[in-house]
Design a protein that fits this description.
- By secondary structure, this protein is an all-alpha fold.
- The chain is built from 14 helices and two strands; from the N terminus they run H-H-E-E-H-H-H-H-H-H-H-H-H-H-H-H.
Length: about 290
């Protein structure tokens, strides 16, 4: 080791660098840490690099999970005839013919590709309108997911239906719904049983009465012990905002044992036409929240 000159020793004592250090740094330059100021504190390059690595890793995990979910959720091939038979469970709430109005749920004519919550003459839940505003459209894939579990798929919507677990049945239903457009409506109208004539309509006598909504509000106190005035469907179907004819039809179906529900059959037994018309008029005026 060579002896240092007096001037070099003095430079080192003042914090300087020896010739060997200067030569080494020229060959292997020291990497200065990049400093990012945040709240007055500096973060070194190594910290930033670790953060970037974690972010990228999480991105890959998210991409993998989304791809895995897409593969898992891929619907089966649907059969239109089986879907038509399965849809008979839906006709109590949904109509399908063009210009035939709505039931408890919206008309499903041309539903494929339609944005959620946009039919101007149907009272949707706020949750479904908001979902449509965020871009939800009824593609085959979106319908499959919604039919599987409506409450979970769009939390807060009023559809009082638990869903269809069987992916094949869902695929069949979607295949049938895809036919509800144009010339295919001739068959769809027959399936949806759209009959509104007074000669055959159940509850036609009550429908002919202009219900007193104030009287209906008085009678509704008993209904609201179970059904929520906000229209929520937490275990009990929502009845807020129903079309009066749909409401009257439903009560008469319980009254005449077409629908089987012990509590509802008991509640409707002593209701006359005037009372049912009044209840229908009152609940039609309410808006779901």
């Amino acid at each position: 080791m060579r002896e240092l000159a007096p001037s070099t020793r003095m430079e080192l004592q003042r914090g300087g660098k020896s010739p060997e250090q200067e030569e080494a740094e020229e060959t292997f330059p020291r990497e200065e840490p990049m400093r990012h100021r945040q709240g007055g504190k500096a973060a070194s390059t190594s910290v930033v690099q670790r953060a970037r690595f974690i972010a990228v890793a999480m991105g890959f995990v998210g991409l993998y999970l989304s791809m895995a979910g897409a593969v898992w959720a891929e619907p089966a091939n649907g059969d239109v005839e089986r879907g038509e038979a399965e849809f008979r469970n839906c006709i109590q709430c949904h109509k399908t013919g063009p210009g035939t109005g709505h039931g408890i749920g919206p008309n499903l004519h041309d539903v494929i590709g339609r944005r959620a919550g946009v039919l101007p003459d149907f009272r949707y839940s706020r949750a479904l309108v908001a979902a449509g505003g965020l871009g939800l459209a009824w593609t085959a894939e979106a319908l499959d997911a919604f039919i599987a579990n409506p409450r979970q798929n769009v939390p807060g919507n009023r559809m009082s239906f638990r869903g269809v677990d069987d992916p094949q049945k869902r695929a069949d239903l979607v295949a049938f719904l895809a036919t509800l457009t144009g010339e295919a409506q001739a068959r769809a109208v027959a399936v949806s049983d759209d009959v509104d004539g007074p000669a055959t309509e159940i509850g036609a006598s009550a429908m002919a009465i202009e219900g007193d909504s104030a009287y209906g509000e008085y009678l509704a106190a008993e209904c609201l012990t179970c059904h929520q005035a906000t229209g929520e469907t937490d275990g009990i179907p929502g009845i807020v905002g129903w079309d009066r004819k749909v409401f009257i039809r439903a009560l008469f179906e319980y009254k005449t044992n077409v629908r089987t529900h012990q509590v509802m059959q008991l509640m409707t037994t002593n209701l006359g036409d005037e009372e049912i018309a009044a209840l229908a008029a009152y609940f039609e005026t309410l808006d779901a929240q």
